[in-house]
Every structure is written in structure tokens, then in C-alpha cells.
Design goal:
Blueprint: H1 3-40, H2 49-84
Length: 85
């Protein structure tokens, strides 16, 4: 395959993963803002805290895993692009 075509394909993959990273960051930021609003408006009752902690841990863990996975893929793509030039 021509190096230019291969580089373009890698650029497209890089942009795709960069969009995933941006969406994940926006999701975690929106979740944090929602938590702050819920606390300040007293929407979160003390009897619901246990369930809230479980949901927050699952959500934060999933998003963190996605972010770290994407960062690794972005670094690999950067290395591949540099090796082509």
C-alpha cells in the first residue's frame, strides 16, 4: 500500500479515537456537574447514597477505562505515523 494512503488511514483512525476521547471527557464532566447540582438542590437523599456510590463508581470506572484505552491507541497511531514519514 502506498505510504500516503496508509498515513491517511492512520490519520482517520487517530481522529476517530480523538472524538471518542472528547466525548468521554464531556460525559464525565456532565456527570460531575449533575452531581453538584443534585447535591446543592437536595435532590440526593441520604438513604440513596449507597446506590449513588455504586452507580458513580461504575460510571467513573467505565469512562476512565475508555479514556486510558483510547490514550494508548492514540500513542500507537502516532508512532505508526512517525515511522511512515
Amino acid at each position: 500500500m502506498d505510504k500516503t494512503i496508509e498515513k491517511n488511514i492512520l490519520d482517520l483512525r487517530y481522529n476517530k479515537y480523538l472524538q471518542y476521547l472528547n466525548i468521554s471527557a464531556a460525559a464525565i464532566l456532565s456527570y460531575c456537574i449533575a452531581i453538584i447540582i443534585a447535591v446543592f438542590t437536595n435532590q440526593l437523599q441520604m438513604k440513596e447514597v449507597f446506590m449513588f456510590v455504586i452507580v458513580s463508581t461504575f460510571f467513573s470506572g467505565t469512562i476512565s477505562f475508555i479514556i486510558f484505552n483510547i490514550k494508548g491507541k492514540l500513542k500507537n497511531i502516532e508512532k505508526e505515523i512517525k515511522s511512515l514519514t
